[in-house]
UniProtKB/TrEMBL annotation:
The lineage of its organism: Bacteria, Pseudomonadati, Pseudomonadota, Alphaproteobacteria, Acetobacterales. This is Uncharacterized protein. It comes from Acetobacter syzygii.
Length: 117
């Protein structure tokens, strides 16, 4: 079935039997990856930093698999996603250790801005 859609490359992870095909996935190769990133951002804003970090990490792996290594913008996007992984991990540790507000990690420490978080 996937051969009928130009966005479905044989190297994509969803070629396996355990991947559920949806109209969204078939429509765009990047839709699910960007959807994961949006979901990660929603979880981050809701304070579910552990879950957000996991979504960011999955998105990073997916991005790495499908990106063009020669495209600088793809590399920048991957770095952006990985900075979010690290930021969310730091927030989880901060919360787990019940440190004060002065010890809270801020986006700038991870190369992110407030508008990106």
């Amino acid at each position: 079935m996937t051969r009928q859609f130009p966005s479905m490359k044989s190297t994509f992870l969803w070629k396996g039997d355990d991947f559920i095909l949806t109209a969204q996935v078939l429509a765009s190769a990047d839709a699910s990856m960007h959807g994961l990133e949006r979901l990660a951002m929603e979880q981050h804003r809701a304070g579910a930093w552990q879950l957000a970090g996991e979504y960011w990490l999955i998105a990073a792996g997916w991005r790495r698999k499908v990106m063009d290594d020669t495209n600088e913008r793809h590399e920048e996007a991957l770095q952006f996603v990985l900075r979010h992984v690290e930021y969310n991990r730091a927030l989880v540790e901060w919360k787990k250790k019940k440190l004060g507000r002065n010890a809270m990690p801020y986006p700038e420490l991870f190369g992110l801005s407030d508008t990106e978080c």
